[in-house]
Predict the 3D structure of the following.
Amino acid sequence: MRLHRAKARLAARSARRAATATNFQATSYELSVVEQAGFAAAAGCDVIFSCVDRPWPRAVLNLLAYTHLIPVVDGGIAVDARGGRLRGAEWRAHIAAPGRACMECLGQYDPAHVQAERDGSLDDPAYITGLPADHPLRRKENVFVFSNSAAAAQLNQFITMTTAPGGVADTGAHLYHLTTATLDHREDGCDTGCPYDSMLRALGDDAPVTVTGRHRSAEQTRAARTRAVRRWPLRRCAPSTTLCTDSDEITQSGSIGRIPPWPPGPRDQR
């Protein structure tokens, strides 16, 4: 059964349940960071974890890291499965922040692909089909084991930055190679001529760059979810029953809760 809930809401609920801090709060925003409202919400953060796949949001987060001085913990995976066999895999983790190499210099996204996404080409099946089979934009590499490794590497980067174990807060960008079990480090900053850690640094909202815009795919996704969500009838819960409603509240022991309708069973057919 599909509940048509946004991942942001589910992530916030999971964070509340797992929190050990007193008065922990989690606020969800069903927005794209490339939208003006999403950009404004991200600009109010102290640290950003980047879990995006596409180039446009990465470019936006890259700008935030340097113009608004907000560290962005980013990562990703690449799998070589040519011929239907696993030939190799890599995952990387790094922090985009002043004094460190930005995501564009690390090759995490191609500026040309950013424009392709902004004009809607990446949502055009014909455009994607016309790309070479090994093109980065055609990859679908959300492999669970490798994703966990990349997530752990991102957390390691965050812990090192915030706690500075042994007095070291920056160990550079990490790239792990599964085939050879080796780890590459890049400890230098941006390439010569890169504007992010130079002319754009610390400009904040005065940066002469417009990276936000209308994100039709995000709008369509939200609209489709709104259409799909049905009004759930109120029913009395059975004793000792625990439910999660669409408002993420918990109802127990015979209280009124929202539950999805299901086909009537033998007892319901009268």
Notes: The radius of gyration is 22 Å. The longest helix spans residues 144-163. The mean pLDDT is 83.
